[in-house]
Specification:
The protein has about 375 residues and is α/β, with parallel strands linked by helices. The protein is built from eleven helices and twelve strands. α3 links the parallel β4 and β5.
Length: about 375
């Protein structure tokens, strides 16, 4: 039993769950009680990978290995806890970069071996979708849209442990479309946040870029054509491509210096947001009993996507759940939260738990380990 801590409710918490996130290029650790997030630390590797214009898997694994120790000491100190106080270790087991996941899984298994804590493997995608549940209780059935750098998935969600995939991207993910477009303009990686920011400087031209893959019945997405359209636009307006790549801080400090990119960025935000909104609305049409709409993942931070989804939910009388910005991208609080939802149902794993690579479905292989 966890009895000491800096946060008031940690004195009475029966559960101290450590969340570990290492599925891509963010190293995250969080400690949660059965009721709240007690401590959280995140080390982004964006600076390292931006030198290469995208994530370099081997560097990502090495950075996770370098950062996990100090981050663990940090969250334990922040929560006033010791390793032996940890009752459950929730670890993102995929889908993600295999090498990165193995680093997180090794820490998780080592801790469980040393302390006797229970191991809970967490589906990174389900964790994204349940992230808004950290701040408010979610109502089901829901339609869930997960839009990130690696995924654009639509789900029907009947409970935190009952998600059915309705549609997915056939090629690029929505975040990838932003990142590739940013690269074409020689903006730093990951470019989604910067395109969002620059897009706020001008109204969109709704006709500038296509809303791809809408004239079909499927709930799948295809964003690769959008990259081609941006490439053609930049080729026709070569002045949009910066000769020198600016640092993200330069753009954030003086977005007006990049106002010539505003129309393209705004129109791209519009094309992505509308494409996501239209397919999500079709998923809602097919699930008329849904009472809520959940939008999650890095792209859920996009201001135009948020506005479109809030408008959609309001128009259809649905509860709208969008994570606060710090919970949209990869983070360990969402892993700890998903872990406690599973642990509360008595679900966990033994030490044979395996990592699941990008593009693979995460198996439902939970064991009954007792609530
Ligand atoms: O969920 P996430 O942090 O990592 C993955 O699991 O992929 O998502 C990262 C993606 C990147 O493609 C990034 O450019 C995009 O989310 N992103 C955004 C915004 N913030 C992050 N895209 C559009 N607008 C934003 N504000
Ligand atoms: Zn993610």
């Amino acid at each position: 039993m966890f009895t000491k801590g800096s946060s008031p409710d940690s004195f009475v918490a029966l559960m101290l769950i450590l969340g570990i996130e290492t599925s891509c290029d963010d190293t995250g650790l969080a400690l949660a009680s059965d009721r709240s997030i007690l401590a959280e630390r995140l080390a982004s590797q964006a600076d390292v990978h931006s030198l290469f214009g995208g994530v370099v898997p081997e560097i990502a694994s090495r950075e996770h290995l370098r950062m996990l120790g100090p981050l663990l000491s940090g969250v334990l100190r922040d929560a006033g806890a010791r390793p032996r106080d940890i009752t459950d270790v929730a670890v993102a087991r995929g889908p993600g970069l295999l090498g990165s996941l193995l680093v997180g899984l090794s820490l998780a298994k080592g801790l469980c071996l040393a302390t006797g804590a229970r191991l809970v493997g967490v589906d990174h995608l389900a964790a994204h979708l349940m992230a808004p549940g950290i701040d408010e209780e979610l109502r089901f059935p829901a339609i869930g849209l997960l839009a990130s750098g690696g995924h654009t998935h639509l789900y029907r969600i009947d409970s935190p442990v009952n998600l059915s995939l309705l549609g997915r991207t056939l090629d690029d993910a929505a975040g990838e479309a932003f990142d590739k477009a940013a690269k074409l303009m020689n903006l730093p990686y990951p470019g989604g946040r910067l395109i969002d920011l620059l897009g706020t400087l001008a109204p969109p031209d709704p006709k500038l870029f296509p809303k791809p893959y809408l004239s079909n019945q499927s709930l799948d997405f295809s964003f690769s054509g959008l990259k081609t359209a941006v490439a053609a636009f930049v080729a026709a307006h070569p002045e949009l491509r910066r000769p020198r790549q600016p640092a993200p801080e330069e753009i954030e400090a003086h977005p007006e210096d990049f106002a010539d990119l505003a129309l393209a960025c705004s129109s791209l935000n519009y094309a992505v947001a509308e494409t996501l909104r239209i397919k999500t609305e079709r998923a809602l049409d097919a699930s008329p009993d849904a009472v809520s709409l959940i939008v999650a993942g890095g792209v859920a931070a996009n201001s135009r996507v948020r506005a479109a989804m809030l408008e959609l939910a309001e128009r259809r009388g649905l509860f709208a759940y969008l994570p606060r910005l710090s919970l949209c991208g990869d983070n360990a609080a969402m892993i700890a939260h998903m872990g406690r939802l599973l642990a509360a149902r008595g679900l966990g794993h033994d030490l044979t738990l395996e990592a699941v690579a990008r593009g693979r479905a995460v198996p439902w292989d939970y064991l009954d380990v007792g609530a």
